[in-house]
Amino acid sequence: MLDQPLVDVKNLRVEFETSSGMVVGVEDVTFQIKPGETLCIVGESGSGKSVSSLSLMRLVEFGGGEISGGTLLFKRSEDETVELSQADSDKMRDIRGNEIGMIFQEPMTSLNPVFTVGRQLTEGLKLHMGMTDAEAKARAIELLRQVRIPEPESRVNQYPHELSGGMRQRVVIAMAMACEPKLLIADEPTTALDVTIQAEILSLIDRLKRENGMAVLFITHDMAVVAQMADRVIVMYRGNMVEEGTVEEIFENPKEDYTKALLAAVPKLGEMRGKSAPEPMRIMGQEAAEAKAPAAGENPEVLLEVKNLITRFPVKKGLFRRTVANVHAVEDVSFSLKAGQTLSLVGESGCGKSTCGRSILRLVEPTSGEVYMDGQDILSLSTDDMRMARRNMQMVFQDPFASLNPQVRLFDQVAEPLRNYKLDSGSSLTDRVATLFDRVHLPRNFMRRYPHELSGGQRQRIAIARALALNPKLIIADEAVSALDVSVQAQVLNLMMELQQDLGIALLFISHDMAVVERVSHHTAVMYLGRIVEIGPRARVFEHPQHSYTQALLSAVPVADPRKKLIGKEMNFKPIPSPIFPVGYEPGPSVYSEVSPGHFVLQND
């Protein structure tokens, strides 16, 4: 019966044992999900959203948690309803991945680095569905094609580290949907994805829901995604439910002040129309920030100059690992960035944004090109000189869990750059680290904690604090706020803009969130298949996009209005061509036309 709930959670309470004593993760949560229904749980980072979903999978126990109260009923069939909190390990193993699929928030930690993508995709198919190796591989390739991964036949033989962050997330989505589960739990499934692929993934989940009667528990902090996906919405705050209702009720007639503040803090595309400089983000529960827009000096000097940057990765095959082709990750990219200004790089996952940022810092060695930082030729520096140059160039990575050491206390991780360069010691070091914790809005008592004791958003703030420790001139922020809920995202972005204003820091902001990019950028560059296809002042690119890809990117941005749903409409995105070319292939240089002062569009694509 469709009107009977597939999942019935009553009075769920989850507690965690920490070094500081017992912490309540979820206090008293009750909800139902029916077949073919999408329930969205929204709230700030640390509100208990993920804990609620991990309890359904009984994975919360592996993170030091305990379900200390409530019931979790799951209807496996007409004749069998299971109390998940009491089920034994064999029954849970049979349910996990088969009847309940889960898309985890951080793809690199949910994929095994030593197994190929194909092996990880086929494991569940062979275990739960009894497929042969050949059948499972064919199904795996089809799943990769469904989540829009180019060249799926070759991707199944690659390892997770060979894929971009967005591609890894799509692999995790494919794994969760492989066995066509009755319930799909999606924990921030699209935070690492650009808007075009996000739109297609959301449409895919929505289609499976309608065709197979799959129920979806969708956990997110993106209110625009909630408006697109949800049938019903639960708003959580500090482990408690504060409001529940249909998606129309929550968006059009919210009852609680917290829900109203959550909706008001969402950055909306088009808010910056007619404004020339970036503006601070709105913070939940506060009036619009009074801070001045971060403006550079009268005629700021060029701090970073990139000319004809090319980065390629070899594709090796055979017993002798001969190079048979190259991945053209970054192809003839040129731009300049002035002190105290923000240039945003946007584009689809796998387009070369992150590789471009890493190439500038020489975390990846470029194939050719020139990079000048403060007039210094970065690509010609020796190892020792490069180490000193990196004091002025810091990076905030996309995946905070992978960039933090799980065995080291947070104090030592933030203090590490200061110790490495012998800039502080003793009590002055402690004071400096405490100040950095203050700056990223984390309590000082967190200094004694370890990364696993923090939420995803809190971990990202630690990574940002560490990048700020050396007072750099340039910060490359690679999807630095994609894991953060709207209120913390606003705090962190305002902090970066404040530092930019006070210290003249230049920011290369790599992101797929078009509304955030519009808010914080002085200039915007749009990347596609390793090349910049459009670059110019932010207002020109957003208000008068000239390239067809830029126009498609802007049209795919979800709107925080449940009556303007893009989901279910046909997404006319062309398949992403492969960036892999045979050895010896040399594409032509990038040729641009200037459509207005400082606004350039690629001609030869």
Automatic annotation (TrEMBL):
<dbReference type="InterPro" id="IPR050388">
    <property type="entry name" value="ABC_Ni/Peptide_Import"/>
</dbReference>
<dbReference type="InterPro" id="IPR027417">
    <property type="entry name" value="P-loop_NTPase"/>
</dbReference>
<protein>
    <submittedName>
        <fullName>ABC transporter ATP-binding protein</fullName>
    </submittedName>
</protein>
<dbReference type="GO" id="GO:0005524">
    <property type="term" value="F:ATP binding"/>
</dbReference>
<dbReference type="Pfam" id="PF08352">
    <property type="entry name" value="oligo_HPY"/>
</dbReference>
<keyword id="KW-0067">ATP-binding</keyword>
<keyword id="KW-1278">Translocase</keyword>
<dbReference type="InterPro" id="IPR003593">
    <property type="entry name" value="AAA+_ATPase"/>
</dbReference>
<feature type="domain" description="ABC transporter">
    <location>
        <begin position="304"/>
        <end position="554"/>
    </location>
</feature>
<keyword id="KW-0472">Membrane</keyword>
<dbReference type="InterPro" id="IPR017871">
    <property type="entry name" value="ABC_transporter-like_CS"/>
</dbReference>
<keyword id="KW-0997">Cell inner membrane</keyword>
<feature type="domain" description="ABC transporter">
    <location>
        <begin position="7"/>
        <end position="263"/>
    </location>
</feature>
<dbReference type="InterPro" id="IPR003439">
    <property type="entry name" value="ABC_transporter-like_ATP-bd"/>
</dbReference>
<keyword id="KW-0813">Transport</keyword>
<dbReference type="InterPro" id="IPR013563">
    <property type="entry name" value="Oligopep_ABC_C"/>
</dbReference>
<keyword id="KW-1003">Cell membrane</keyword>
<comment type="similarity">
    <text>Belongs to the ABC transporter superfamily.</text>
</comment>
<keyword id="KW-0547">Nucleotide-binding</keyword>
<dbReference type="Pfam" id="PF00005">
    <property type="entry name" value="ABC_tran"/>
</dbReference>
